[in-house]
Amino acid sequence: MDEYIIGIDIGSSKVRAAAGKMDKYGKVQIIGITSAKCNGVKKGIVVDIDNTSEAVRECITALERMVDIKIKEAYISLPGGISELLWNKGVVAVSSEDREIRENDVKRVLKASKIVTIPSDKEIIGVIPEQYIIDGYDKIKDPIGMSGLRLEVDSQIILAQTTVVNNLFKSVIKAEVKVLGVVFQPLAISQAVLKDDEIQRGVAVIDMGAECTNIYVYEGGNLTNIETAALGGSIITNDISVCLKIPFLEAENLKIKYASVGEDDANYNTKIEVDADYNNKIQVDYYTLKQIVEARVEELLYIIDEKLRSSEYYEKVSGIVIVGGGLGLIKGIEDFSSNIIKKPVRVGTPGTVGSSNPLYACIAGIVKDVSYAAKGSNFSGKTEKLQENEYKGYTKGKDKKEVKSENKNGIVLKIKEFFTDFF
Question: Which of 39, 201, 206, 373 has CB atoms 3.0–4.6 Å from 407's, for a disulfide?
Answer without folding.
Answer: 373
